[in-house]
Amino acid sequence: MSAGAAMQPPRAGRSGRKLALWGLIAAGVLLLVAANVHLVYVAVTSQPDCVPHAREVGVDGAPLRAARSAC
Fold first, then answer.
1. How many angstroms separate the Cα of 2 from the Cα of each of 5, 7, 8?
2. Rounded to whole angstroms, what are the CA distances from 22 to 28, 35, 68?
3. Of 11, 19, 27, 61, which is least surrounded by CB within 10 A?
């Protein structure tokens, strides 16, 4: 083995794979962040509709009632 062989620059194919790998990692992280931002946005802006429920325990055969009714 000669001293010149140890000092050769990396091959172009290897650096291209490394760049593609980092690109995929960045895309995955961005997708994860975007999904979490969307989840928080939907949780903050949505308001569930009122559903019929028993106002008191034991009414209409319902053993439980809503803890706090919003409507």
1. 6, 9, 11
2. 10, 20, 49
3. 61
- Which helix (H) or strand (E) segment holds residue 40: the answer is helix 12-45
CB 31 within 8 A of CB 38: no
pTM assigned to the model: 0.52
Distance CA 66, CA 60 (A): 14
Encode 22-53: b = buried (16+ Cβ within 10 Å), e = exposed. eeeeeeeeeeeeeeeeeeeeeeeeeeeeeeee
Q: Which two tokens stand for residue 12?
A: 């172009």
